[in-house]
Design brief:
Elements (H helix, E strand, L loop, with lengths): L4 H40 L2 H34 L2 H35 L6 H30 L4 E3 L5 E3 L2 H5 L4 H30 L3 H36 L1 H8 L5 E2 L3 E8 L4 E8 L2 H7 L5 E2 L13 H30 L7 H9 L3 H17 L2 E3 L3 E2 L10 H32 L16 H5 L1
Antiparallel strand pairs: 1-2, 3-6, 4-5, 7-8
């Protein structure tokens, strides 16, 4: 049997990006969390904030390093597996990715050194500034990467040259393409929620063990407080993002919703087994007309079905359908946990309800799962296009690439990632188990006095 290099290359890229995306998603939220703690320490002088900041900074360093390594490996595949795509899209995507390196990555790398090693070597204000700049660097990195990926979803501001390559006409239109604002907001909030649940889970674990009570209570309170704000906000952003996707990529929405027939008053399908071979759903369970209301904000709004497109222009419906439901289910779980935390906080039982602490520990990884599910919806839902509606994935593959070559490299990646990132994950979990340094052992550097304090 001949191995398909296109399918294997897609699987290889999916494997490497699934590992890579977890680390930036975590470090984006974690960098902002550390920056907030550093600012609070500078403003109040409370060693408690410093203890928590130094604890999570160590974990941030490991996660950042693994994100860099996995990102470098992933970028090589543009040349080895997808050279035709690299040639066609270089004039647009090359600068966007370069901007990420020369702005965001350099900013992060420069001030990360101060954040990690400059606590007692630079003035406190400089150290706090470094934390803030690292956080801004992570957000800038997400900005450029999502601008590039969003352009592949909803291309704009380009022209096609005589050589068949994309050429930029309007960089503002390229960067701020139709889907970018929604996808950027959706991703950043997802990163913050992911970090919030990791911090909450780690804090709940220490509370159950009766360790580092002051740090754990403060961290749990701040993390779940943030989740209480962001979980409902994410649902709103997701709704706006869905409406935007319906306008620009309706076939993706049809796959997400499992609609085969174009209809008004379409149901919201809660569960089904989509069957592309017969173009229908088995065991369908839905709520009448709710799908049209959600997608069009009209009970009788028209929703296009998958049969509006030929089979060769549809994505893999079962993968998109179930990945979307997994993402939504986790979003609802996050909201439920956040609302429960508010009720327990009001009853002054947030820190001593063992069942809730165990639930919070169990929910620690759900942000990562939601991000992988959402990314699957986005990328598989774009198929069979690498640039939506313009360049097919089969035309983007490197010439003379054999399936056996890709299969071998994929096997090597799986083995190497299992060893390297397994060790990295073990080390991060070990750091979490060790916990923060006790406040009395910090030897806290003094913060600068304010003008009023100096006058006294």
């Amino acid at each position: 049997m001949e191995l398909d290099p296109v399918l294997l290359s897609r699987l290889q890229f999916a494997f490497t990006i699934s590992f890579h995306i977890l680390f930036p998603a975590f470090t984006i939220g974690l960098a902002s969390w550390i920056a907030v703690l550093e600012v609070l320490w500078l403003a109040t002088g409370r060693p408690l904030y410093l203890s928590i900041s130094e604890f999570w900074t160590r974990i941030f360093a490991v996660s950042f390093a693994m994100g860099v390594v996995s990102g470098i490996v992933m970028s090589y595949q543009f040349g080895t597996n997808w050279s035709e795509f690299s040639i066609v899209g270089a004039n647009v995507l090359g600068p966007l990715i370069s901007y990420e390196v020369v702005t965001a990555f350099f900013l992060e790398a420069t001030f990360l050194g101060i954040l990690l090693f400059g606590r007692r070597r630079v003035p406190p204000r400089m150290h706090v500034l470094s934390a803030v700049l690292v956080a801004l660097g992570t957000l800038a990195s997400a900005f450029w990467i999502l601008a590039a990926n969003s352009w592949m979803q909803t291309p704009a501001g380009y022209t096609m040259g005589d050589d068949g390559r994309f050429a930029p006409l309007d960089w503002w239109a390229i960067v701020f393409n139709p889907s970018f604002p929604y996808r950027f907001a959706h991703m950043v909030v997802a990163c913050y929620l992911t970090t919030a649940f990791v911090v909450a889970g780690a804090s709940a674990w220490h509370l159950l063990k009766g360790r580092y009570l002051a740090q754990s209570r403060l961290s749990l309170s701040m993390a779940l407080g943030l989740a209480s704000l962001l979980a409902p906000l994410q649902i709103l952003i997701g709704d706006l993002h869905g409406i935007n996707t319906l306008e620009h990529q309706p076939v993706k929405v049809a796959a997400m919703e499992g609609h085969w027939e174009t209809a008004r008053g379409a149901p919201a399908i809660l569960f089904a087994l989509p069957d592309p071979t017969v173009e229908e759903n088995h065991f369908e369970l839905g709520v009448p007309k709710l799908g049209s209301l959600i997608l069009t904000h009209d009970w009788e709004g028209e929703v296009r079905g998958l049969k509006s497109w030929p089979p060769e222009e549809r994505p893999n419906v079962p993968i998109v359908f179930f990945a979307f439901r997994l993402m939504v289910l986790i979003g609802m779980a996050m909201l439920a946990i956040a609302l429960t935390s508010l009720a327990l906080r009001w009853r002054r039982r947030l820190y001593d309800s063992d069942w809730f602490l165990r639930l919070t520990i169990a929910a620690t990884p759900i942000g990562f799962i939601a991000i992988l599910a959402g990314w699957t919806v986005t990328e598989v839902g774009r198929q069979p296009w690498v640039v939506f509606g313009l360049v097919r994935t089969v035309d983007a593959i490197s010439p003379n690439l054999t399936g056996a070559t890709v299969a071998f490299s994929l096997a090597v990646f799986i083995l190497a990632y299992a060893v390297i990132f397994g060790a990295g994950l073990y080390y991060m979990l070990r750091l979490i188990r060790i916990g923060p340094q006790p406040v009395e052992e910090l030897g806290t550097p003094k913060r600068p006095l304010s003008a009023a304090e100096a006058a006294r």
